[in-house]
Structure formats: C-alpha cells, structure tokens
Amino acid sequence: QVQLVESGGGLAQPGGSLRLSCAASGFPFSASAMSWYRQGPGKEPRELVARVSDDGSIRYADSVKGRFTISRDNLKKTVYLQMNSLKFEDTAVYYCSRQGIYWGQGTQVTVSS
C-alpha cells in the first residue's frame, strides 16, 4: 500500500534552516507528482507549500518562494523540502502528499527564538 514517511522536522530559530524528507513506497514514485503541505496551529485547511511534478516542474506558495526548495530523488523514492530563512509563521505540521490523496503522518516544524 501507499506509504509516505516524513522526517526532519524539529525546532529552528528564525533565519535558520531545516530539511524535511519524505520516503515513499507502494506506488510508482517516478510517475507521481509529490507535494508538501502544511497546517499551522488553528489553521484550516492544509496549505500547499510546494509541488514537484513527475516531469520536474515545480510550484511554490508565494509565502515560501525564494526560501524553500523542493526536490526529488527517484532512485531513493524520496522527496525533500529544504527550508531556509525560516520565519515564525512557518511553524506548522508539514505533510508529504501524493496527488493530494495520500498523506504521511506529518512532521512538526517549530520556529522559535
């Protein structure tokens, strides 16, 4: 079955960096668009942060452009989210998703001084 396992969350200071990873299995990863979403405290619904298509095209939310970078490694079946210049408002649970249908369990990112 489809499995998405996120890792790499944690605590960072404003201006700091974190790198999230999502290990995928159970589906043709290289043929799937993969996305990162986030849900901030008390916020609904989940916000699309970044998406990388199977052809490598990339889309970012305006709020993270220039600071976050999504990438994928089809051999490792893993999608990454490099987050730089973190801000307080980046605090959220970050979810990996396949096509907005399948979801990982989420990883907490907290930006605090």
Would you kindly provide a brief summary of this structure?
This protein is mainly beta. The protein has strands spanning 3-7, 10-12, 18-25, 34-39, 47-52, 58-60, 68-73, 78-83, 92-98, 102-103, 107-111.
Give me the secondary-structure topology.
Blueprint: E1 3-7, E2 10-12, E3 18-25, E4 34-39, E5 47-52, E6 58-60, E7 68-73, E8 78-83, E9 92-98, E10 102-103, E11 107-111
Parallel strand pairs: 2-11
Antiparallel strand pairs: 1-3, 3-8, 4-5, 4-9, 5-6, 7-8, 9-10, 9-11
Structure description:
There is one protein chain. The chain has 113 residues and is mainly β. The protein is built from no helices and 11 strands. Strands 2, 4, 5, 6, 9, 10 and 11 form a 7-stranded mixed sheet that branches. The protein has a 4-stranded antiparallel sheet with strand order 1-3-8-7, with no helix packed on it. Strand 7 (68-73) and strand 8 form a beta hairpin. The radius of gyration is 13 Å and the shape is globular. The N and C termini lie far apart (40 Å).
